[in-house]
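Quiz preparation item.
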């Protein structure tokens, strides 16, 4: 799932899909997907590692993200930077780098699961009484019960909820594409039939 990797920015494919489904204020009664208004932002891929290595490194310097080992964060193939961080709304020869609202003074301690800002957890000293049933997270120690409200479990449930919503959004998108494809196939079949009849 593509989302803007700039710290503190919540723009993503999912928010774009939600915007498309919402009503347009300029064209009352129409949704954004049919009203013709331009999208509020675009999700732009990182420069190619082989073709533009210097530009890619410059982007990473401006983004200033680190991974959990305090090394320079490396983008994944699906990582994106949204157009709101570019002076011209997109990379141009004059302004090729993301420089606007880069989140360097972002102070929110609530971790957005989409941004995964790494904060080293305060782990208490080990105790033999504590049951370690969350080793896969490796960020906290918890003696979780069925209805646990520790920070790790709360974050885990939030992430699960976000993934469920994104999954539903993708399912809806696939259903729409399938419906369009079926309509197009039916239209082609009718046109083909009519051409044969007219000959």
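Solution:
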């Amino acid at each position: 799932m593509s989302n803007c990797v700039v710290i503190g920015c919540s723009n993503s494919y999912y928010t774009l899909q939600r915007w498309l489904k919402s009503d347009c204020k300029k064209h009352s009664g129409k949704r954004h997907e049919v009203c013709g208004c331009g999208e509020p932002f675009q999700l732009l891929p990182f420069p190619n590692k082989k073709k533009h290595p210097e530009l890619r490194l410059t982007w990473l310097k401006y983004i200033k993200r680190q991974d959990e080992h305090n090394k320079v964060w490396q983008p994944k193939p699906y990582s994106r930077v949204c157009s709101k961080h570019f002076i011209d709304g997109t990379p141009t020869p004059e302004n090729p780098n993301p420089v606007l609202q880069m989140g360097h003074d972002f102070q929110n301690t609530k971790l957005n699961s989409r941004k995964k800002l790494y904060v080293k957890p305060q782990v208490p000293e080990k105790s033999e009484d504590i049951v370690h049933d969350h080793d896969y997270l490796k960020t906290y120690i918890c003696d979780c019960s069925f209805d646990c409200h520790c920070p790790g479990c709360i974050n885990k449930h939030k992430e699960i909820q976000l993934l469920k919503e994104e999954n539903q959004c993708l399912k809806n998108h696939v259903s729409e594409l399938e419906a369009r494809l079926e309509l197009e196939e039916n239209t082609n079949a009718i046109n083909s039939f009519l051409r044969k009849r007219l000959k």
